[in-house]
Amino acid sequence: MLTTLKRFFKKIFIYPIIIYSKFFKLNDWELNGNLTSFTKIKFLVVPILDLSFINGRTIRGLRYDMNLDPFIGAFNMLNSSNSKKIAIEYLAENILLSSNLKLKDLNQFSTDSIFLNFPSYTMAYPWDFYDFVYLKNNYENNFIENRAKIKDYNATLKSDPYLISLTHMDQFQILTDSILKNGYQDNYHNLPVVFILIKGDKWCWINSNSGNHRSIIRFGLGYENIKTSICKVVEYDNLHKLKNVKNSNFGIKDARFIFDKVFIGLEPSRGCL
User: Fold this and answer.
1) I want to staple 128 with a disulfide (CB 3.0 to 4.6 A). Which of 47, 124, 164, 240 is the partner?
2) What CA–CA distance (Å, rounded) separates 217 from 179?
3) What is the pTM assigned to this prediction?
């Protein structure tokens, strides 16, 4: 009975989305970051779209196509002839660096705020569904729970960076082995979740906190596109409407600064923790 119900709801909710996503798929010009009024309609009407890595940003706000993210570098080391040990040490160095940073070290905020001295791992984007205080109170518990899923490691934010890096490398390896064996499977119930950022007639996408490892693996294995679930469309001209701007976590000047920084994608807006 339960299986029958699952199939019924899958037909009702998932199959129409698959059909719509094929009809509203982005063309090559759009995939490269060009926007028309119809492109915007596609983003709003279809929650699932294939997006190009050429126009993507990792959760740290860095361009995929320039291999700037330390996690991409670590995965490439793991996936190449280099040893796993080298990959772990490389990422561990970047994690150690992040562990000593504060928000004000990552981003130049124009106003003084108690948030500026928060740890770097509390960095939220203006468009995120959570804020600095939420991350300060909850991120460590979420981190411990997330890392414990990988071979039951007892990793915390205060752990040796090598152990934290090891959990990420093992997660990369487990997922990669599965993909190489079974192919990359698009699970419509659990796709990488992304935000769409729009400025003028250009746009890009950035990972949320869901699906980062899969995104990096797919990119590292040479795929050009990735099927994603779009959770929000963020327009530069409407940043003042965002919750994290309305509640004064970001002034409008700072929100625009972060948006532009991610849009360019050459410097990280978040650390490696």
Assistant:
1) 124
2) 9
3) 0.90
